[in-house]
Amino acid sequence: MNISSVAVSGEAPAPADAVRPMLYIQDLSKGFTLHAADRRVRGCEHISLSIAPGEFVGITGRSGSGKSTILKCIYRTNLPETGSIWYDSAAFGMVDLARLDERRVIYLRNYEIGYISQFLDCVPRTTAREIVEASAAEAFDDPRVIESETVRMLEHFDFPRELWDLYPNTFSGGEKLRLNIARAMVRRPRLLLLDEPTASLDNASKVKVRDLIEQLKEGGTTMLGIFHDLEFMEGVCDREYNMQAGEMR
């Protein structure tokens, strides 16, 4: 896919450390206006964070503290109100995701940045196998590799073969979440955002998610995740921050 350079590409302001970051968030704020209730809801405020290539940073905090808002601003599900989100793209160099045009945002979602949410969103009447295959096809060109990676992921998460060619609207909540994780991780993205990836999983499935996270770290994937499960994060995250009332502590 040929995309020309963009005006918001360039060099991010240097963070405190000397390592060129994969992701550098500078004074990010995002709120929401509820027009029907004539109310202003705080999302996140004045967030600054630098993540080095291959690093895994975790964010904890109570529900409603603003954790997911940060991830959605990075992924551009939400448009930030103030601040910058500098990302070191393989295709475009340093770009500010807060101001990047939609065409390039879509490219980065397809080829560089993965997002795991608690909810499975997929094309209707698409089987579990097809969902993972379509994601693998964005990362690999060889049909044999696409097939083998799809099988590897479905087997890793213990999906019985009789489920592979069924539509996921018949799956349980835990099965849908496992499929969502398989779809995101099969691509081996450069940057992976994880929004409560173990929220509805049993302990055995949590271990499998942890195994894949460790494999991605070894492969150089940079990760930013939010969790309530502090025990799961021990030994996985390189650094941890806590969110309180929209601010990072």
TrEMBL record:
Gene3D superfamilies: P-loop containing nucleotide triphosphate hydrolases. Keywords: ATP-binding, Nucleotide-binding. The keyword Nucleotide-binding applies. InterPro entries: AAA+_ATPase (IPR003593), ABC_transporter-like_ATP-bd (IPR003439), ABC_transpr_LolD-like (IPR015854), P-loop_NTPase (IPR027417). Coiled coil: none annotated. GO terms for molecular function: ATP binding. Residues 23-249 form the ABC transporter domain. PANTHER family: IMPORT ATP-BINDING PROTEIN (PTHR24220), OLIGOPEPTIDE TRANSPORT ATP-BINDING PROTEIN AMIE (PTHR24220:SF676). This is ATP-binding cassette domain-containing protein. It comes from Collinsella ihumii.
